[in-house]
Amino acid sequence: MATILGIGIATLDIINEVNQYPAEDSEQRALAQRKRTGGNVCNTLSVLRQFEHQCALAAVLTSDADGAFIQEKIAQRGIDLSPSHKIGFGHAPTSYITLNRPNGSRTIVHYRDAPEFDLTAFLAIDLTPFDWLHFEARHCMDTAAMLALARSMSKTQILSLEIEKERPHLEQLFSFPDVIFFSRAFAQNRDFNDPRAFLTAAHHWAPQAVLILAWGAAGAYWLAPSSGRIHAIESQTVDPVVDTLGAGDTLIAGVIHARTSQGATDDWSPAVTFGVRLAEQKIQQIGLDDLNTRAGQAAKTQPLCHLDDLGPADALGVRPLNGIPSVIVVRAHKTLYAYRNICPHNGSPLSKTQRGYLIDKPEGFALRCAVHNAHFDIESGTCTQGPCPGTHLQTVPIRIAGDAVFLAPEVDEPENNPSIAQSS
Question: pLDDT by residue (tens digit) across 43-65?
């Protein structure tokens, strides 16, 4: 697991749920009220801790009662607060949130009575233990200096930046991060209603960075810096929407989690897909707890892919875990097969991307491991060439419902029995 430092703000969120958003100069009773910790970076770290990453928070923490509540709750999640700057004055940053229960929309009033985390506090942190530094775009002149310092100290640490809203001197930040997460609200505030047009423009601002843009119910888009190509990750239908608070922070956590296990590759689609799916789980529940468990359960009920995703002779890596496809769905004319994305030679994935599994041989197509060039028969999963002859890929039971391919209920099948193949 990775060691991750988040630099931003920790807040107290006071959430009132209402049956409809109140009109001005009116009153109504709240259906429910709850109090929790918030702040974008704090939320992201809270989700990452569920996936067993080592997380630390760099924020300003106050000593009042609300500040003590924030520190207690964050520490209970196992987030290290030692990089934070603790002060003896001011009130804890507080956000008053009105949540419209029927549709999940929310309106937020922020109260801030504490200074921002600044460069002086950042200089006191030993950055060497961290694999990934994730910044929230706040107090931009100081944040730019922090990013520049971190970049100069290490070429191997990943630097990511979340830009949620417009800030003074924001352009100072663009040239440093490896990854920038944008919100739809930010794009629309800059008069972009087309996500592709926004990412094309943002590519000129930060040509070195992977750009990821969350777009609400439409899913997310990401841009590869090497090619400028834009990829769309579509969302799945979520009904009902229970609580959208923290959905964007959850998406970021999902991407970071998946990417830290994926390794060096230019393809961020598996990681962004994992982030989108995790955010979909989040908006179906109140709060951020147990998302790792829910994500695993949801994977069993969501389709692996659709028939239209596969050509007549095709293979597709699906169901990303830690950013790497865990299942390969293979189509040979009218028959489907599925195997675990694990080479029996050394346990590595055959491929870490969605495509690149098939090789065209004189006798027909075969599955191929890109690591040591092992070839496997499509119908049986048997290794026919390479370093592990006679071994087999692990079959995965699947079923077809309509135009979608699902994991089948768990059954006791012999490991090498190709009877899981389902006719389409």
Answer: 999 999 999 999 999 999 999 99
